[in-house]
Amino acid sequence: MVNKSTFRYNTFHYEGNGGCRQYTESKAGRGRNSVTFCKTITHFPQEESTLTTIQISRFSDEAKRANWRKSFLAFEAIFYFFQGVYLTGMQTFLAVRMAEFGLTLSEQASFSALIGLPTYLKMFIGLLSDRLPFARLGRRKPYIALGALLYVPGFAVLFGVKGFNGLWVAAAVAVQIAWVMVDTTLDALTVDVTPDEHSGAIQGAAQGARMLGMGAGILLIPLLGPKIGWDTALILIAVFALIQGAAALLFRELPVDREQLRTEMPLGQVIKRVFSRRLSWLSILFSVFFMGSIGLSSVISAYLLTELGWAADPALMAVYGTANLVHYGAAALGSAVAGRFIARYKNNPVFYAVVSILFWVSILPWFLVGSSGERMFWVYAAQLTYGIGRGMMTVLVYSVVMRVCPKSLEGFMFATLTSAMNFGLYTITPKTMAFFTERIGLAPSMFSAVPYTIIGLLALGLILRDLAKQESVRDVVPERGQAPSG
Fold this sequence. Notes:
alpha+beta, single chain, disordered C terminus, disordered N terminus
């Protein structure tokens, strides 16, 4: 039997008992949308005609399920595909422009670091959208729209300025701020609208699409730039940036206002609870080491381009580009495969251990790269298998991170944990691996990161235990005898 109810903001009105319930969401001026969701909820009156009101937090999985649409997976994939193309395209454009301006390698590194500074502000932008929604306009979408608008003057100045000066650097920083605002807020919006059981699927779509986009961008932009001109290439990159913003605006937000945030989730109490619980600190530890353990790419690139001298040979550079495309395509495949299994095994530590072992098995072909005299076949094979392993591990990390983000601080915590991931990816593992590569060679040095995987798995075991306890607590608490609203 299907029992009908009305979902008006954060209150479900339920008539009848048991079975599947059809929740109808009513919003002023926006029509009505229905979704059927089956769940056993106790303590309902037995009389079919009696009406009971059930208070459901808008931050709960119950509310997310009522709002969930399969189309969200497509929106996420579109966003991240164009993000992948944008990131590789923008990185290439900035490097080419600074080389044309005659900057030394040291100067390029310094200005690249300056342009990248906004990425370290992601948690503060996340906190802004967490706690300051724009009344009827929404909690996340206004910040996404603001970031997309900020792209326009930044790209306009980059297009117009033909020499290196402070204005050019400021425009590059402005574009980076715009990207950080859009990316950080979309991450938080993804957490807002995704029920726990769909976290693997949506991260599989996101990471797989981003890998495909990066593969496309790493070929497309360097190929088109010299042919159509870098000014025209910049316009194309700007279009990719704006498509990201447009895709993010397609999501349907759950309505949250400032009064609800103050009453349901007081900021001081939430922050105190977040940083006093072991789950938060375990999640940071997990993000640094588990994600960090797969950060082999930068050392692999440096080894091929510098140690083997590929950078000086145009033919080998073509092989390098094609091998990277194979790698990103394989990573997209690995992401999609892992995403399909996470919902079933999300609380099973054995599943994560098995995927970790498969990742390290995927590294083994790199031994054949060295022993074969760097034959191209084995370079392609090693990039293929490593890509699959990298994609699987990446989805595992992001799906866990989505689940540990506390209600009302989703953006802040997600950005904090991704910053922790980046520290592991771009600092801890590359430093460790570079130290051993000089002494024992590339392939053996990769396994110097195995202890980081083990540390991550130990932290993850405790995280999964805490998450399982949280999931045993009901989101829905019925309040008997209340009159219906509306």
